[in-house]
Amino acid sequence: MPVVGMVGGGQLARMTQQAAIGLGAQLRVLAASPQDSAARVCADVRIGEHTSLEDLRGFVKGCVVVTFDHEHVPPAFIRALEEDGTACRPGSAALLHAQDKLVMRERLSAAGAPCPRFAAIPADTALAALEAFGRETGWPVVLKATRGGYDGKGLWILPDAGPATAELVDRLVDEGVALMAEEHVPFRRELAALVARSPYGQGAAYPVVETVQRDGICHEVIAPAPGLDDDLAAEAQRLALDIAARLDVVGLLAVELFETEDGVLVNELAMRPHNSGHWTIEGSRTSQFEQHLRAVLNLPLGSTEPTARYTVMANVLGGDDPDLYPRYIHVMAHDPAVKVHFYGKDVRPGRKIGHVTAMGDDLDEVLERARHAAEYLRSGPAMKETR
Amino acid sequence: MPVVGMVGGGQLARMTQQAAIGLGAQLRVLAASPQDSAARVCADVRIGEHTSLEDLRGFVKGCVVVTFDHEHVPPAFIRALEEDGTACRPGSAALLHAQDKLVMRERLSAAGAPCPRFAAIPADTALAALEAFGRETGWPVVLKATRGGYDGKGLWILPDAGPATAELVDRLVDEGVALMAEEHVPFRRELAALVARSPYGQGAAYPVVETVQRDGICHEVIAPAPGLDDDLAAEAQRLALDIAARLDVVGLLAVELFETEDGVLVNELAMRPHNSGHWTIEGSRTSQFEQHLRAVLNLPLGSTEPTARYTVMANVLGGDDPDLYPRYIHVMAHDPAVKVHFYGKDVRPGRKIGHVTAMGDDLDEVLERARHAAEYLRSGPAMKETR
């Protein structure tokens, strides 16, 4: 059975290991530390930096294919690996669109994919360019670092072009942060369309989900998106499959979408298992982690058929108490059917340390169960009662 | 999160690792070799022998609880670990009933559990005792080694007390094999009742399944057992929960049963995840591997609700061709919803190397899908076509 290398030792690699065990594939992870989430659960762990080409070159030896649990590997290094003959999936040319938001916007807009209006913000005329963009689209305006942002980092909503904005832009330009601006879209809600694509070009689409963000971090995911118009759902799936094909994505592609009065707009792309797809571990016949492995190994893709009418995933963030074990016991006793996933991370306030999944026919009940479990794990009273 | 030690590096430990990753528990395995099925997928692997008390004592240091992927640890060694203060679950007193068939029969019969008629076969009067037992129950008679048998090993069906039987019995007695006899039960089919029990005494029962053996090896499992009378199913579940409580089992208990004209009879016991429960990975809200971990960690048990009307598990045995990858691809392409599980073992003819699971509403269709996948993986024509 083949060795798959995954660069990055986070929870996405950790959950990919669960799927690799079933498939019989061997997962090798490149982790920064033996304490990383995935390093704690894999047999084949290499310690190194994803920002070191030497470490990457050592890591890929013996892997039939290399994939990624994040977007932070420098594009030039992925190209160098490809030039060495390493099969990187997704490849550098595709992955660049998940690494650089401006490249993504320019490519998708040119291809006719529905996107918010946007503009590059050149360093030498940053404030003027931002003011001009604000005049065109109206304020507020969304300012983004073109690279490196995630979970609300690298994104600012600017109410106007006043002194606070000028100060922020000056600071970012001084720090060398490449910037772009986007219109602030008055969306109804956020959706995500998750698809997979194999090197042969086989595609598979999961049901479109609703994602709820809080403080820029994914808070909960409802599968399928409740009340979503069937035509719009099909349009979103087609859009995601089309982007995957156009960009030659291999593996998973998560397309984060805004649902507006007029349809959907593309917000962000990710080319890896994605927080909006954690519900598939229990909620789909094939989890996103298995699907990603099947795609990068050029195996036939698995069924995306849902296993329940509704599946709700809620992220568990760290609270003030580092010891959540008593609350863990409470949650399991309270709801024997809720599934708890922990990432093996130390608890820090606001850090994603796990997620919970609930399933059923009655959406209100399923939502309540998932929310109770996630909130209780973060800050429920059990810790006070039991100590 | 706690460290759980599992003695044995087979596929049961391997699949337990998948569940441990989700629960956030750390699984440590004692494997005979780094090539063992579970050693290939765990971060915390200790190499040693389960027949060495020294190796066992080193292994358990730092584990909050120790459990087992097989029955082959000498009972005296488990008692020694317990005397050292190690939490062994199941404990030595319970586990002995899964290690020694005569102890099990005597205990269950005394407790009134329905069992086949049986007799100890003393070494010094073996053939005479066997003849007497055969006169009482009629021939054929089942001869069993009281310890160490599995997958049809250590079990002989004797047609009569003729010369072949005398020769076999002489040889076994010479080898020091402890023996017992059981009546040959004219069963309709075989069933299995899988339950879990926690140290608090919480119990959970899975739906009763039908198991189909071939050459003494589990061939396929149908969940739930089709056409099983509701009262008989409930009786089998109660019987298994009752045995678990009486024997003070902690963890899983699989009770293999014969269904006869008059009800059920206990065939064998196992106190660990069991081949008859592999279907629960996809087919139940809580897999048997997660359930075993929850039970031995004294966590509240998970829901045993089925996730489909029918789930069929078929074992994949090795065929003549060591390279099954081309057949693997075929099976995935043929049926995107069948789930393939590989154990990371080298292929040898007749060796259990994995299993497949199919689910759906139409039993005939589900059976056909699982059988096709398992048979094709073993010996399908794809290998000939693709090379």
Automatic annotation (TrEMBL), chains A, B:
EC code(s) of this entry: 6.3.4.18
Signal peptide extent: none
UniProt xrefs under Pfam families: ATP-grasp, PurK_C, RS_preATP-grasp-like
* Residues annotated as domain ATP-grasp: 105-297
Record flagged with keyword Glycoprotein: no
Question: What Gene Ontology terms describe where this protein resides (cellular component)?
Answer: cytosol
| Pathway(s) it belongs to | Purine metabolism; IMP biosynthesis via de novo pathway; 5-amino-1-(5-phospho-D-ribosyl)imidazole-4-carboxylate from 5-amino-1-(5-phospho-D-ribosyl)imidazole (N5-CAIR route): step 1/2
Q: Where are the transmembrane segments?
A: none
Where ATP binds, per the record, is at: K101, K144, E182, E183, H184, V185, E190, N267, E268
Which keywords does this Swiss-Prot/TrEMBL entry list? ATP-binding, Ligase, Nucleotide-binding, Purine biosynthesis
- Superkingdom field: Bacteria
- Entries under PROSITE patterns matching the protein: ATP_GRASP
Q: Tell me, what is one Gene Ontology molecular-function annotation carried by this entry?
A: ATP binding
Swiss-Prot/TrEMBL GO biological process terms: 'de novo' IMP biosynthetic process
Q: How does it assemble?
A: Homodimer.
Q: Which family would the database say this protein is a member of?
A: Belongs to the PurK/PurT family.
The protein's name is N5-carboxyaminoimidazole ribonucleotide synthase
Name the gene. Answer: purK
